[in-house]
Automatic annotation (TrEMBL):
InterPro entries for the chain: AAA+_ATPase, ABC_transporter-like_ATP-bd, ABC_transporter_ATP-bind, P-loop_NTPase
A Pfam family annotated for this UniProt entry: ABC_tran
Keywords (A to Z) from UniProt: ATP-binding, Nucleotide-binding, Transport
Entries under Gene3D superfamilies matching the protein: P-loop containing nucleotide triphosphate hydrolases
Superkingdom, taxonomy of origin: Bacteria
Protein name (database record): ABC transporter ATP-binding protein
Species this protein is from: Chelatococcus reniformis
Alphabetized PROSITE patterns for the sequence: ABC_TRANSPORTER_2
CDD domains listed in its UniProt record: ABC_NrtD_SsuB_transporters
Keyword Nucleotide-binding: yes
MF terms (GO), sorted A to Z: ATP binding; ATP hydrolysis activity
Length: 281
């Protein structure tokens, strides 16, 4: 497939960057598993990037490295051109399971960051109010997490992250625990959030459809060891309509790109014992 990315200089200087990132894990038998191999990736402020790839292709690993939550074996991550050795409050991660504080209301969960950092000022209450409105939780502000649906919990987690005014949200398959209808609503929600606020978004997904509908740019990981196999401009409005011919066309191309790696990686994830047992002796 033709590369359709913008030249880097049109995007502005990178906000976060992976530079020659290689990650090796130790497998169960002490063997080396190279999860990522020489990844170079620059993400500018205001981009909405989806990291797409089959299970086991190193998406979570790369996201953690971009956020300073994990150090690579080789290479490094940069934040605004400086080595990133630890997490920063400017890059906030959102996981599949929103880990809200169960003893705090929605409003208190969202206000948690500003309160803890002593940055709760006169204007903060109004900003929290505004955020609750944005994520559609204004009415539910006094509820506790156990009184919320899965989508509401995830929106609370996103509002809580945004309350600290980070430069980027790093989302790791944030909607994969939700049912299809809710998942679509959340995709529209995160997209409209980006359209109105232009907060930099880096979102991991293994859903091609989700990546196309949400992102401006899709970075595909695949192969063994995993590398960037495609870096695609997904900003065309036609790609935000799942019934457009362009959507179907790009979806087909991305499927062809990801499929060859699926079996390979699926096999590798079998426990070694299971494979050995299945082998004829
Ligand atoms: N802590 C770890 N120890 C050993 N292997 C790991 C560890 N974390 C991830 N891996 C392996 O690295 C590869 C990439 O994992 P991951 O980044 O979670 O991929 P993805 O998020 O795309 O599913 C997989 O083969 C996985 O089994
Ligand atoms: Mg993952």
């Amino acid at each position: 497939m033709a590369r359709m990315t913008f030249p880097v200089n049109e995007r502005g200087p990178p906000l976060v960057e992976a530079s020659r990132v290689t990650v090796a894990y130790e497998g169960s038998k002490g063997e080396q598993i190279v999860a990522l191999d020489g990844i170079d990736l620059k993400i500018a402020a205001g981009e909405f990037v989806c990291l797409l790839g089959p299970s086991g292709s190193g998406k979570t690993t790369l996201l953690k490295i971009l956020g300073g939550f994990q150090l690579p074996s080789l290479g490094g991550a940069l934040y605004r051109g400086k080595q990133l050795a630890a997490p920063t409050s400017q890059l906030v991660m959102i996981f599949q399971e929103p880990n809200l504080f169960p003893w705090l209301t929605v409003e208190r969960n969202v206000a948690f960051g500003p309160r803890m950092s002593g940055r709760y000022r006169a204007g903060t209450a109004a900003r929290i109010d505004d955020l609750l409105m944005t994520v559609g939780l204004h009415e539910a502000r006094a509820r506790y997490p156990h009184q919320l649906s899965g989508g509401m919990r995830q929106r609370t987690a996103i509002a809580r992250a945004l309350a600290t005014e980070p430069e980027a949200l790093l989302l790791d398959e944030p909607f994969s625990a939700l049912d299809v209808a809710l998942r679509r609503r959340m995709q529209r929600f995160v997209r409209s959030l980006w359209e109105t606020r232009r907060t930099t978004m880096v979102m991991v997904t293994h859903s091609i459809e989700e990546a196309l509908l949400c992102a401006e740019r899709i970075v595909v990981l695949g192969g063994r060891p995993s590398r960037i196999v495609e870096d695609l401009d997904a900003s065309s409005p036609a790609l935000k309509d799942r019934y457009s011919p362009a959507f179907a066309d790009t979806q087909r191309k991305l499927e062809a790109l990801i499929d060859p790696f699926e079996d390979d990686i699926g096999d590798a994830q079998e426990p070694a014992g299971a494979v050995a047992r299945a082998m004829p002796r």
